[in-house]
Amino acid sequence: MRAVFGLVGLVVALAIVGVLAKKQLAATRTPVPALQLPVAPDSAAAPAPAGTVRAQSQQVQQQVKQQVEGLMQQARPMPDDSK
Question: pTM for the whole thing?
Answer without folding.
Answer: 0.36
